[in-house]
Amino acid sequence: xxxxxxxxxxxxxxxxxxxxxxxxxNNIGNTVVVARxxxxxxxxxxxxxxxxxxDVLDLPQVVLLDLNLPKVNGLEVLRRVRADERTRLLPVVVxxxxxxxxxxxxxxxxxxxxxVRKPVDFAQFTEAVRTLGLFWLLLNxxxxxxx
Amino acid sequence: MPHGHCYLWNPxxxxxxxxxxxxxxxxxxxxxxxxxxxxxxxxxxxxNWMFLCFGLFIVACGSTHWMEIYTLWYPSYWAxxxxxxxxxxxxxxxxxxLIRLLPKALQLPTLEQWRxxxxxxxxxVEERTRELTLRNQExxxxxxxxxRVEMALRESEALKSAVMAAALDGIVLMDQEGKIRDFNxxxxxxxxxxxxxxxxxPLSEVLIPPSLRRQHExxxxxxxxxxVGRVLGRRVELTALHRDGSEFPxxxxxxxxxxxxxxxxxxxxxxxxxxxxxxxxxxxxxxKEAAEEANAxxxxxxxxxxxxxxxxxxxxxxxxxxxxxxxxxRLDESARKDLNRIVAAAGRMAELIDDLLLLxxxxxxxxxxxxxxxSEMARKIASHxxxxxxxxxxxxxxxxxxxADCDPQLMRALLENLLGNAWKFTSKQRSARIEFGxxxxxxxxxxxxxxxxxxxxxxxxxNLFTPFRRLHSAEEFEGTGIGLATVERIIRRHxxxxxxxxxxxxxxxxxxxxxxxxxxxxxx
Lengths: 147, 524
What we know:
By secondary structure, chain A is α/β, with parallel strands linked by helices. Helix content of chain A is 40%, strand content 16%. The longest helix of chain B is centred in the first third of the chain and has 56 residues, at 111-166.
């Protein structure tokens, strides 16, 4: 059932709000779980801490991951998700302000499925989220329970 | 009457006289012969004439005895008498001579005296021999000592030569007049002179750069007067002069040696160019490290700028857009206009941030040269520009096969800027034309981007490449004022040059060159 969950890993409340609004504008009605730092994201995904006992194999449909995060940064979250047998096939979209080549290269080489730069213009941002939603939520097929 | 008659011819008596006379005569003949022989063999005997006299006298005596025998049978007594008389004369003469000789003969040392004299002589000889032996030993000792000293001297000389020859440092010996007295192989290597060339020449003239000669000569004169030398017994770093006229840093230690005829100075000289270079390289390495550190800091700063400045902009733009979308209908025209301005301003600021980031990246990133097809790159940029405003009709003249050795990413940013500018400033032209080509100026390939657009007043051309300096108002043509600064920096990173020619409303042409690879090191 949490196949409908989108995990948004974002520490900026403005960006969190704008992302949620952009999703709504595109009629994406999935449940959005927000993790405000890398540690919280890992706790959710790997069923630890406050999320101990959560069925880890019940994966979110997509993770929208910011890179610049408190505690554990986005790239580290990505590496740990890919290192864990249970989450290694989880679709992860890096959604960030950075356009640095290095960030892009590191993200892809750490196993990001796609890399999207958050545009300043909200119309463009909404368009980007629409495209993301179309691909990752509607078109993309994932194994139901992945190992 | 023969003499025999006197003996009454008594045969025994006659026989006795005759035989006796015979024997005497024989003896008297033999004795002078013996004496004669003695005198002849022992010429050292004093008074040997006396022996001759004796000889003569004995011969004479002998002859009388021969006559005695003769007169036994023949009575020639006159002859015998004459003979006797001769004998008498000889005898008397001899006797007289002998008497006169006596005092002298008495002076002759006795045998005992001889023996004593001999003993004394022998003792003296012995003593002298001892003395001689001692002296001999002493001499032998002295000879041995001298040989030892000479050996030691030779050894020391050999050691000195070996040290001079094998020393890694240049060793130069200088006398108090400042003349070179010795020059070892290492010094030959260090200074480029052979030993023979410099011996006897003033050291200051040969080994010291002209600018330092006075100082050296003053120091030497000073030492002559006060006995105090600035460089003595210390290691100092000086500048030395090579034969080829080049100067090099040298570490010098000077030691004074007291020698006959004044002091000598031994200078140990080491060329420290290598060490200096190493130190400089080390300095450079540190500077590079510091620069890299600063670069890394700048990078993380840029990263923060990119990431953190954009987030609030996104909020400003995003929530303004949301206000417009959700509440726009209930707002009046001017409020909607304000919100639109906020959104536009946020957009411009985002662009500004991106341009600034590009500018700083251009300054930081390494220039990786490769062969780039500029014609192809320009055509791609042109088609992108057309996509952004398909309604525009622009004539593109892109020369074929323009190839350059440059960093492709930086070159793309450069062409995007120049072609973008041309595109922008021809936007008000009815028939816009943009050209990208190549010419040769003073033997160097020069590329150019020309347009027939708005152009600019050449009076302000010096501000063209300064960040944030714009020659057009934002109302006329939008822009951040960073593009040409970026272009200039990209060209500078390539070691080239960029300049522009224009006239207001007469179009503009931007020229740029990329220094050939081999000149990269000397450029910028």
